Write the structure tokens for this entry.
Amino acid sequence: MWRGFTTMLKRDLVLAMRRRTDILTTLFFFIIVVSLFPLGVGTEKEILRKMAPGVVWIAALLASMLALERLFADDHADGTLEQMLLTPQPVALLVLAKVTAHWLLTGLPLVLIAPLVGLQYHVGGDVTLVMMQTLLIGTPVLSLIGAIGAALTLGLRGGGILISLLILPLYIPVLVYGSGAVAESMAGGGELGAYFQLLSAFLILALVFSPWATAAALKISTE
Amino acid sequence: MNIKWFKYAAPSTFYPLAGRMIPWFWVSAILFIGVGLYWGFFHTPGILTDQKEYYRIIFPHVASAWMSMWLYIVLVGWALVGLIFQTRISFMMAEAVAPTGAIMTFIALVTGAFWGKTSWGTWWDWDPRMTSELILLFVYIGYMALQSAIDDRRRADRASAVLALVGAVTVPIIFWSVNCPDPNQCTALHQQSGMGKVDPDIVIAMLVTSLGFWLYSFAIIFQRVRNIILQRERNTRWVMELPEVKRGK
Amino acid sequence: MTQAPFLEWRRLVVERGERVLFEDLSGRVDAGESLLVEGRNGSGKTTFLRSIAGLYLPLQGEFLWNGENVNDLGEGFRENLLYLGHMNAIKDNLDAVENLRVQSRLSGNPASDEDILSALAAFGLRGFEDFPTRMLSQGQKRRVALARLLLSRAKLWVLDEPFVALDVAAVDHLQSVISAHVEAGGIAILTTHQATQLTDNSTHRLKLG
């Protein structure tokens, strides 16, 4: 059973390595969005520091959502998605493999680039560390929820903008607690445990439900 | 029992049945809303805690806010039934519920803004309940956007049903996260619904108005379902033989 | 293997885009038989084939594999199924061997590299094994997709227009591959617009529309 998972994961990673620009696009989108805010609201240190948690998380939301449009699109266009539904592997597991690959390529880079944002917004090392931790737990949730939207809007005209209508409202809990934890650590509060517990609970919930709902949505969309 | 249920689930049976029921729903909706609002405006105390006459906006406000939530549950219910039993009428119901749900949400937001202006001095405040209502509006809009973006009816029905179910799981979490952005101060969720302390006239007016909103929803949703049926089944014999369709030709 | 496999469909009602394609369709194909699905464009050949594979849900009726509902069997049916649609289902950025390796692993029946190379050679692709498939011609891509047939252990082959884009030699070879599969106790269901040599008495015809 796990052979299907690893085969799919490896396939998507190999494919991505052969088209590396796709990964960099998401990453640079994130960096550009984050860099635009100070140009819009002014470069005063205190304001920037205050905005940092929200900015980082909203930029992560947008970046992850933009990348999602491509999650199933290529496989749909060349027919491999159809074959994926016909293998004797559990479809939800193959979906999970694809989402995992997708997160490794578009979500994890955001976690790793977060220290740069920390420098731009003058937040300290501790806060940056918290920022990275919340992104590490939160961005997989974004990928998992977003996969449902990508599957539902598969092959539709204007699919990209439609995904944002469907998915962005569902991202709210991650946004609230992800940025909440960063803000809390900035205020010097040490009580971060509850935030991380909630984010982890979301991750578990998304891991259980999302691949299954995505598989159902893919079946409907490929009919 | 089963047979009867599925009989009414057929669009050709439901169409005339709904047609006969709609006038009654309209009449009783107008009656209930009229009485509820009359009671609310003229038979309730002039002051609620420290707020004066303008607090009476809560009668349409509370009724529409309740309906906006109820209708989402109804929508999810029909979506679920549709996915399980593959009955056409359930998807049509779900499709018909969404616009009314969105409108109720919108009314709740507008009346809420009036309430906010008069009692807090601002049109909009990021009050958890207002925010929840705003997000609910987004969810309705997402549902309707997906429904209308897909040309193939079958896919549109089932895809939006899946979206509604995903929403059913996440919307409570979203509401909760908005209500309680700081988990350290939320060990006991405080919901001050002081129904017991409130003047009984206010409660009566609120309930009667809400009932009127329910009846209005039935009327308008049934009407919309009838339109959807006509549109979708326009090629079937029973639709072509309807007197109203023949007359139009 | 206790019994010879068979596929049966009962009282199918299939509609597509508010149009009923066929009603009350029943039938059966047994091991060692092939079925040619015929009909004009838009008569529902592809939809019928997709319904067999479970990619399309009929409005009413069911498909049975060895007497059991295919949806209930789920993965147990899909491991017996090889479906080839209009699209080749190969990744442009992988070479032919990589494509087949992934497909055979996902089908639960991993093929060795030697088997993959000989399957490609059988379809005349010797020397093209490690080209990214985007550099191959339409006909060559189709042949990469068809090489799956030689690696599969599936009993039921469902092939939608398998002869499209193939040259005469490849058409001949594909026909012999399908015949061999059927003679070995397999089942083949296919659509084609080409005149085919699959006309022996083990070939049945189903006319739609």
